[in-house]
């Protein structure tokens, strides 16, 4: 039996390899299909004690396509290239965050958006 190498784990889906562009697109599509509101957040670190991230603009209440969300991710990444960036999905009925996943890690490849 082999154990996982010791490394930092981030958010939902953190035990999987980095998401491809198509997988990121599909996760955002899932958020929209479920009626959740996507939002983009960024932070300089991803330490477990850092529970509050800075929100990039307001949640994307009127987003109807994945491309709208991807454009905002790219804008955030352009302005804050040295920060971790994640997408979160908010449920307006339960009034809480349902899911989140990292779409950009600074100084690491594997994420285009």
Automatic annotation (TrEMBL):
The cellular location(s) given in this protein's UniProt record come to:
Bacterial microcompartment; Carboxysome
Source organism's superkingdom? Bacteria
Q: Which GO terms describe its biological process?
A: photorespiration; reductive pentose-phosphate cycle
**Where would I find the Ribulose bisphosphate carboxylase small subunit domain in this sequence?**
9-106
Question: How is this protein organized at the quaternary level?
Answer: Heterohexadecamer of 8 large and 8 small subunits.
Q: Which family does it belong to?
A: Belongs to the RuBisCO small chain family.
Its protein name is: Ribulose bisphosphate carboxylase small subunit
According to its UniProt entry, this protein's organism is Mastigocoleus testarum BC008
Q: State which gene encodes it.
A: cbbS
């Amino acid at each position: 039996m082999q154990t996982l190498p010791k490394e930092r784990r981030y958010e939902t889906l953190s035990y999987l390899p980095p998401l491809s562009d198509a997988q990121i697109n599909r996760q955002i599509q899932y958020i929209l299909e479920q009626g959740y509101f996507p939002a983009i957040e960024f932070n300089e670190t991803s330490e477990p004690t850092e529970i509050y991230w800075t929100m990039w603009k307001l949640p994307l209440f009127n987003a109807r396509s994945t491309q709208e969300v991807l454009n905002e991710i790219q804008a955030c990444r352009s302005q804050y290239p040295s920060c971790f960036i994640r997408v979160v999905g908010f449920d307006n009925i339960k009034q809480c965050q349902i899911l989140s996943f990292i779409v950009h890690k600074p100084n690491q490849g594997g994420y285009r958006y």
